[in-house]
Structures are given as C-alpha cells and as structure tokens.
TrEMBL record:
Protein name: BRISC and BRCA1-A complex member 2
CDD domains listed in its UniProt record: BRE-like_plant
Gene: LOC109727521
Example of a GO cellular component annotation carried by this entry: BRISC complex
PANTHER family: BRISC AND BRCA1-A COMPLEX MEMBER 2
Keyword Metal-binding: no
Superkingdom of the organism of origin: Eukaryota
Keyword Transferase recorded: no
Pfam families: BRE
Subcellular location: Cytoplasm; Nucleus
Keyword line: Apoptosis, Cell cycle, Cell division, Chromatin regulator, Cytoplasm, DNA damage, DNA repair, Mitosis, Nucleus, Repeat, Ubl conjugation pathway
Length: 382
C-alpha cells in the first residue's frame, strides 16, 4: 500500500473538506497517499461513496505538482462498465456534457466543485446500476422493477458475492416524516431516513410462488437516539407477495412506532423532572431525548453520584442505575462504579413520582451496600 505524508495541498484539502462537511450524504475518506514516492504533499485519496445502504470506493487522483488541474476518478474493478464521461461501454451512463458538467468546467478555486462532481457521478452510477438490473434475465426482478422503481428515492444495485450467486439489492426509503419537526430541539446534521433493504437472488426460472427475499430495516445513525430500529418486528412476507404490496404494511407499522418513540421522550422528561423533590435538581440531564440524568446523593458522610440511563422503551423498560463514589478511587485514579442496577421495584403503570419514590427507597439500603463494595475494593488494589 502506498503511503506518504497525509497532508494535501491547500486547494485540494479545501475541496475535500467542503465535500465532507456540506454533503447531505455521509461520505468518508478511506485513505490518503501520494502519487510521488518522495512527494512533499499527498495528492490522492480513496473516497467511500454511500450508495444503496453500503459504500462503493472510488479513488480520486489529483496531481500535487498541478493542483489546479481537475482530478481523475478510478472506479472499482467490478464496475468496469461504468463510463460516466462517455467513451462508450455497456451501461456507461450519460455523456460527459450532461453527467459531469462540473468536471468539464473545473474551477480549482471553487471549494464546492468536488462536491458537485461527486454528486453528479453518483447520480450517473445510480442510473448505471439500474440499467444493469433491468438487463438481467430474471422475470421476477423485471416485474418488481416495473412496479416499484417509480417510487421516489429508491436505489438498486447488482451484488456479486464471491461465494454465492449474484443478488439484486433494493434500498427503499420509508415514511415521508420530517424528523426536524418531530424533535425540534435536536440539530439533525443530515436528513433522517428509515429504509427497507430488500435482497433478491438472481434466478432465470420463475416460480409460481417465489420465495421471500431477505429483508431488514436500516436507519440513519443519528436516528438511533430516538428510535431503536433493531427492535422493530417486520410483518411476514406472504407467499407470492411483491414489494409494492408489502411496503404499505411496513410503513403503517413503522408510523405507529415512531409516534410512540416521540411520545416516549415526554414520558422520560417527566420522569427526570420527578427526580428533583427527592434527589434534588439533576447535575446533568439529556435535554433533547431525555435518555440520561445524574444526581448527587449523600448518606451520612458518604457522597456519591447516581447515573440514570433511561431506555428508549421507557416505561416498559426501567432505567438502569449506576452508582459512582466521589470518595473512592481505583489504582488508575478513576472513581469506583457499581455494576449496573435494574433489580429494584418497578411498574410501567406507576406515575413518575411513584417510580422515583420506589427508587429512592431502594437506594436507601443499596447505597450502604455500595459503600461497603467501595471499601472492599480499595485494599485489593494495594
């Protein structure tokens, strides 16, 4: 692997930084290196381009000696038919003047130019993959495409794993919900989405009752603070069902659970507010999703912190408590913590004041056990 000083010339660095900070898509840089063995600057990098709920790797090749020149792009070996700049080739995408006008009209002083080029190339790549799927000799896939690809935002690609037959993967955005309005307090960096991933094996034979595809839900990463996509149980895929029939059921189910997740924020907030009468005002609390809170507690001369970790499924699931001593430290100088505690009395039907009261009563005795735990832990370190 070629490796060199990771610094890029200022003009190239400005374009890459603009791409990473301003794109609505989560692009990543895999590695940066120099095309010259003893070069002062690096001038090329591998860009991970988000597509169809995965990433494709493109190498972006500049010339550090001529940083004002437009970069070249090297695509993955599996995409040798992808020719977005013209030059023929099967499924190559649109001609250069249409698909990559920002590259043809390159301006090295415009930090947004690389972003524009990469988005144009990605749009061409989406069309290239769609054409590849349409050309497959698979009746079921042809039917699915004819009934579903008119839906806005769908991406599709051919996947050729080395150890099994080719597959076609669909990434279908679900629910036209504005999460900025649902959770106004949170500064979402990107537009939040939930997708259904559907993977079909490529087959030339058409069964009257084809088997169900592999399906799973995928969400953008920030959304996990609000909604646990892993806990959603998908409805069964019935025999003979197609994607257009399946999606409405999934979306109806999801909409109910998203509404419940947003409502759960209010329930967690009321629980945190109920801590004050017995524990005092929290030292820290999560003001948006209300997933965490910390209070200061005193038992005689023993002072400790109580950390509340409040699950998304609250109040069905109770908060996890962790006690932290302010007077006992381990050999690394770190405050001693208790193991996670969730074996205290709890009922999701109690009001927040009752929940907090029962936790307080439980901790009156538990803090004595924790103090002994701290005292016992210190001699073992000496």
């Amino acid at each position: 692997m070629a490796a060199a000083d990771p610094s890029l010339p200022p003009q190239i660095a400005a374009q890459l930084n603009y791409l990473l900070s301003h794109s609505p898509l989560p692009f990543k840089v895999d590695q940066i290196w120099s095309g010259c063995k003893n070069g002062r600057f690096s001038d090329r990098f591998s860009l991970l381009v988000p597509f169809c709920l995965d990433f494709v790797k493109w190498d972006v090749i500049y010339n550090a000696l001529f940083p004002a020149a437009a970069p070249d792009f090297v695509f993955a070996p599996d995409d040798d038919g992808f020719r977005p700049l013209g030059g023929g080739g099967k499924g190559g995408g649109a001609p250069a003047e249409n698909s990559s006008s920002s590259l043809c009209d390159w301006n090295c002083r415009d930090p947004a130019r690389l972003l524009a080029v990469v988005h144009e190339l990605r749009d061409s790549y989406a069309q290239y993959q769609k054409k590849r799927v349409e050309e497959l000799d698979d009746a079921r896939l042809k039917f699915e495409i004819s009934t579903i690809l008119s839906r806005e935002g769908i991406e599709v690609c051919v996947v050729s794993p080395p150890d099994r037959p080719a597959e076609v993967k669909f990434a279908v955005p679900l629910l036209d919900l504005d999460f900025d309005k649902l959770v106004r307090e949170y500064p979402w960096k990107h537009q939040q989405k939930i997708f259904l991933q559907v993977v079909y094996p490529v087959s030339r034979s058409y069964s009257s009752i084809p088997s169900a595809p592999r399906i799973k839900l995928v969400s953008t990463s920030d959304l996990k603070a609000l909604f646990s996509i892993e806990d959603v149980k998908l409805p069964p895929w019935l025999d003979g069902m197609c994607m257009a029939e399946y999606l409405p059921t999934v979306e109806d189910n999801l909409k109910v659970q998203v509404v419940e997740a947003v409502a759960s924020i209010g329930q967690r907030r009321r629980f945190i507010e109920a801590l004050s009468p017995l524990f005092g005002r929290p030292l820290e609390a999560d003001p948006v999703f209300c997933r965490k809170a910390t209070v200061l507690a005193i038992s005689g001369v023993f002072t400790f912190l109580i950390h509340f970790s409040i699950p998304i499924q609250f109040p069905k699931q109770q908060p996890i408590l962790t006690l932290q001593s302010s007077q006992h430290f381990n050999s690394q100088g770190t405050p001693i913590l208790s193991p996670p505690i969730n074996d205290y009395p709890w009922s999701p039907r109690w009001d927040p004041a009752k929940m907090v009261e029962r936790i307080f009563d439980f901790l009156v005795d538990e803090c004595l056990n924790f103090k002994k735990y701290c005292n016992d832990a210190i001699p073992q370190q000496q």
